[in-house]
Amino acid sequence: MADPGLSGTKNVVLVVDDEVMVLRSTTVALATAGFEVEVANHGAEGLELFRAFRDRICLVLSDVVMPVLGGMEMAEKILESDPGTKILLMSGYSDAALEVLARKKFPFLRKPFLPADLVRRIRKLLDQAAAAT
């Protein structure tokens, strides 16, 4: 059931991952929670979609390790052009990814995760951003 609190213009989550099953399950979880979802298979495609939908994107959810352009590099490019963008990175690689992300101060979600945990984490990030403005 859609969340009536998401009726504003910024209700799109851009999901970037090279694993089809992650894209599918994440899309279903987010759509069920009331978000619109755009998906990309790698960081370069994610950048293109971000540029196309930036006025509607409330958050970018991206894998860290992908072909063509990784999630960390994509996130940095997005923040160069739009520093206020909320980004949540995810990875199945634990130690090395966490170390890099801790230095960059990106929020991180370890794969695998439950759909409810994903939605709860995204809502928390969006609520924190709303409270800060």
Question: What can you see in these coordinates?
Answer:
The chain is an alpha/beta fold. The chain has one domain: Rossmann fold. The chain contains five helices and five strands; from the N terminus they run E-H-E-H-E-H-E-H-E-H. The protein has a five-stranded parallel beta sheet, with helices on both faces. Strand 4, helix 4 and strand 5 form a beta-alpha-beta unit. The termini are far apart. The N terminus is likely disordered.
What are the main properties of this structure?
5 strands, disordered N terminus, Rossmann fold, 133 residues, 5-stranded parallel sheet
The parts where pLDDT drops under 50 for at least 5 residues are 1-7
| Beta-strand proportion | 15-25%
Overall structural class, as computed from helix and strand content, comes to: alpha/beta
Largest sheet: 5 strands, parallel
CATH class group:
Alpha Beta
Strand order of the largest sheet: 2-1-3-4-5
